[in-house]
Amino acid sequence: MTVTIRPATPQDAALILRFIRELAEFEREPDAVKATEEGLRHALFGERSAEAVIAEQEGKPMGFALFFHNFSTWTGRKGLYLEDLYVTPEARGSGVGTALLRHLAGIALDRGCGRFEWAVLDWNTPAIDFYTAMGAESLDEWRIRRVTGEALAKLADRG
To answer: 83 with 48: CB under 8 angstroms?
Structure first.
């Protein structure tokens, strides 16, 4: 089946939220999703802090990718950061994930990005193997650090 990738529209907010919830379930964090349709609509189509694309087969949505630009001081160029890539269980292995990654790689090149990067959970061996087969290298010496909620307020000396 042919995979079509299209830019998300404001009307896709519910679909994107559904995919995010399905991804959170897969990643064993079903209660972690705080996003709303309205919030996604604002972030993606109002302030445009991120972008999303929808993958379809025969007009049926089968996955999505949500991404944004970051910046590398080492390359002196912007990069493309993939926040989420999700393919529905029934579409896995059918080329949807490959089509999404190839599409985003093309966006990165078209926009002059020096890098295209993302994170993957260490237990998600199928995804790790897929990304490796697509040419992605693992940066095992790097560790992601995160500050949220009360810790963020405390760090900002506001709590």
So the answer is: no
The single residue of 79, 131, 132, 137 carrying the catalytic annotation is 131
Name the residue with tokens 């790689």. 105
Structural domain tally of the chain?
Answer: 1
3-7 and 51-57: which strand pairing? antiparallel
CATH number of the structural domain spanning residue 51: 3.40.630.30
Catalytic, 131? Answer yes
Comparing CA positions, the residue from 58, 53, 52 lying closest to residue 3 is 58
**Structural domain span for residue 15:** 3-155
Note the pLDDT tens digit of each residue in 63-104.
999 999 999 999 999 999 999 999 999 999 999 999 999 999
Q: How far, in Å, CA of 153 to CA of 148, rounded?
A: 8
Whether pTM > 0.90 for this model: the answer is yes
pLDDT digits (tens, 9 = 90+) for 20-49: 999 999 999 999 999 999 999 999 999 999
